[in-house]
Every structure is written in C-alpha cells, then in structure tokens.
Design goal:
By secondary structure, the protein is mostly helical. It contains 20 helices and no strands. Helix 4 runs antiparallel to helix 17 (about 365-370), helix 5 (about 90-115) packs antiparallel against helix 7 and helix 8 (about 150-180) runs antiparallel to helix 16. The radius of gyration is 21 Å and the shape is globular. The two termini are about 25 Å apart.
C-alpha cells in the first residue's frame, strides 16, 4: 500500500486522530474527489427531477414512484458486488459513472430541446436506478481495499462527507440553477460532474484483484457468478454481527429515510408551503448535521462501534418522531440537523462493522448484500405515499418512526451478545 509521506517521518510522528490522515494515501486523494463530484451530481439530479415530477403531475404518489425507481437496483446489487470482486472495484466504479454521464446527457438533450416529459424522466431514472444505488457499496469496498486497517474508520468517515457536502452544496446549487436558468442548463452542470468523476476514478491505481477467476474450475462464468453470490449471502447470514447490522440498515431504509429523503419535496411544498429554495434548505439542514457527525467520528478514536450504532439509531428515530409534528420550516430544520447527525453515526458504524468483519475477497459481495437492504426504501416510500393520502403526513411520520424504533430495539435485544456486550468483536476498538 503506497504512502506519499517518507517512512521515517510517519514512524516518528506521534499517533493522533486526524481527519486529513487518509489523504496521505495517493489513491484516496483521487477517489475522494471522484466520490464527491458523483454525490453532488446525484443530489442535484434527485432534487431537480423530484421537484419537476411533483410540479408537472401534482401527485405525491408519482413523486414516491419517482423516488422508488432510484432504488430498484437493490435487486442486482449483490451481483454487482460479485462483478466488483472479479474485475476490480475501481474498474466497476468507473464504468458505472460513465453510465450516469450517458443517461444524464440524454435528459439534458431532452430538456434543452423541449421534449422532456415526466414519462421520459421516470423511464431514464428507472434505468439509472439499476446501477446508481450500488455506487455507495462499491466505493466503500474500494476504500476498504486501498486503506490500511487501522485507518478504516477515519477513511470511511471522511468518505461519508462526500454525500453530506452534496446534500448541502449540491442541493442549494442544484435548485438554484434550476430556478434561475431552467432544467437544461442545470443538467449541463450535472453531466460535467459525472464526466469529471469518471476521469478521477480512472486515476486510482487499481489494486490487484482479490478474487481471481480460476478458468479451469470455473469455465462457465454465469454458474461461477451465482456460486460466488450464494457464498457471499451465506457469509453474511452466518456471521451474527453482520446479519444484525444488515437488519438495522434494512429497517432504517424502510421507516427512517422516507421521511428525510424521498418525501422532502412533498413536505416542503404541501406542509410548509415553500418553494425550491425552501426544499434546498430542508435538504441541506439534514446534510449539515450528517457532515458534522462524519467529521466528528473521523477525529475520535477508540469507539465501541456497535454501541454507537445502537445509540445513534435510537436518537435518529426519536428526532423523526418530533419532526413529524413540526409545523414551521425553522423547527423542521433543527430536527433535520439532529436527524442527519445521528444518521451519519449510525450508517458509518454499520459500514465499519461490515468492512472490519469481511475478509478481503468477500468485501464486494458483503457490500452488495448491504445494498440489497436498501430495497426496503422504495417499499417504505410507496407505502408512505398511500398512507399520507389516507391519514396525513403527521400520522404517517409518527407511525413510521415509532414502528422503526420498536423493531430496532427488538433487533438489539435478539443480538445483544454480538452488539452490546463490551467485549463483543463488533465493539473492538
């Protein structure tokens, strides 16, 4: 693993936590900005298209359908994990980001020529959703591959800031460009970000493949891939702390993320009566809290990771219970900041538990299974869209947060020996 600092200088420096420590690794200095630009483009695109669909159709159900289509790739995420283990996570990530550029370029052309419609948006978002969701898992596997074990928590925490800053700068700049210049010019910026992120990803020196194909034993690629996929899922299922972390991730996507992600355009427009700028502020407030959490965790060492996951998830749900009752934008912003902070700690803890536990040649498949847990998000969104029409947002939000909190505590109780005990492997410092 290459380091740019001289060996004697690194050994002579006292050990200390630093948010900048991961950037001593050359590959990380390329991957981090590539992930940042991709995340900015994701956030800009999601908010712009969500607002477009809501305004053009006036339907919260179509809004939740749009948001759900972004997550249909959960069904093939484990297989993409297999592909990443085979061809290398760098190469897979570069191909995925080139795909985003092509699909966003299509939306840009339709917007600039005046042929864009909600139907075209839904079709292209569905196609992009097949691969886009796996970006987070593949980038996490690549970070685990290029970083030393003792820097993993800091590297994953700093990597998480790419998504947090995207929800701040990406949200505000995206809706700002959309409101000021229209969808076409806004999409020129989005496509440019995807192209730049692809080029930066290719600058990462691809590590050697951890799981090479034995052509003599695996002459049929499809059969071998299915075997690899089954091995990866069995690996997660038979490791208690990994299985518990996956269940908590599944639950959070089902009951927590719909309230702070997919439904924000509806909440901004229908509950608070605000415009695109108000939507940007709400989205950015969640991200500011998340960014603070990511930076804080990158600076603190010796954390009992599983206990942190439990405590932060409890706070996240408690905050969402309060958020569901808020009637003004300032109070909602305060709740979303705290929700973002606790969410960041919870999601980083889950990623660290999975990456620390997984052996190197299983990392892609483990993160693929982790992405499969996100399949609950479109289910939660679609159910929320129907429930809001029947009982209103406040009651729906309360039901989601209370149910999620109760089920999360049940998961912790069932796996308490693997998650809460001080000397459990998941709590190793």
């Amino acid at each position: 693993m290459e380091r740019d600092e001289p060996r004697h200088r690194i050994l002579s420096e006292p050990a200390r936590a630093s948010a900048l420590a991961p950037f001593r690794i050359r590959n990380y200095r390329f991957q981090w900005p590539a992930d940042l630009l991709t995340s900015w483009a994701f956030e800009m695109e999601t908010l712009i298209l969500g607002w477009y669909v809501l305004v053009e159709t006036g339907s919260v159900l179509l809004l939740t359908l749009f948001a759900s289509l972004s997550y249909i790739g959960t069904l093939i995420a484990p297989m993409l994990g297999v592909v990443g283990d085979r061809i290398g996570h760098r190469d897979l990530l570069a191909m995925m980001r080139a795909t985003y550029a092509v699909l966003s370029g299509t939306l840009m052309a339709l917007a600039l020529t005046g042929y864009l419609s909600p139907l075209y948006v839904l079709i292209i978002v569905a196609i992009m959703g097949l691969v886009r969701l796996s970006d987070i898992g593949v980038r996490g596997a690549l970070v685990a591959t290029i970083m030393p074990h003792d820097q993993l928590i800091g590297a994953i925490s700093v990597s998480r800031t790419t998504m947090d800053t995207a929800r701040i700068a990406g949200a505000l700049s995206g809706v700002g460009l959309f409101a000021a210049l229209g969808m076409g010019p806004a999409y020129v910026a989005i496509v440019s970000l995807y192209i730049a992120s692809t080029l930066l990803t290719l600058c990462v020196v691809a590590p050697s493949k951890p799981h090479p194909i034995d052509e003599a034993a695996d002459s049929v690629l499809g059969r071998s891939s299915m075997r690899d996929l089954k091995e990866g899922m069995a690996y997660v299922w038979t490791t208690p702390r990994m299985r518990a972390a996956i269940w908590i991730a599944f639950l959070a996507n089902l009951t927590a993320y719909p309230l702070s992600n997919g439904l924000l355009p509806y909440i901004a427009r229908e509950i608070y009566g605000t415009n695109q700028a108000g939507l940007g502020y709400l989205s950015a407030s969640f991200a500011i809290g998340s960014l603070v959490g990511s930076i804080l965790l990158s600076l603190i060492g010796g954390i009992r990771v599983a206990r942190l996951m439990i405590a932060s998830t409890v706070v996240w749900y408690a905050t969402l219970l309060v958020f569901a009752q808020m009637q003004s934008v300032p109070s909602a912003i305060a709740c979303l900041m705290l929700a973002g902070f606790s969410q960041s700690l919870a999601m980083i803890s889950i990623a660290v538990i999975l990456m620390r536990t997984a052996s190197e040649h299983f990392r892609g498949r483990v993160m693929g299974v982790r992405m499969l847990a996100i399949y609950s998000l479109p289910l939660g969104l679609l159910a929320a869209g129907s429930l809001i029409g029947e009982i209103g947002f406040a009651a729906t939000g309360t039901l989601y947060a209370a149910t999620g909190l109760a089920l999360m505590l049940a998961i912790v109780l069932h796996w308490r020996a693997d998650l809460w005990h001080l000397h459990a492997p998941a709590n190793a410092k």
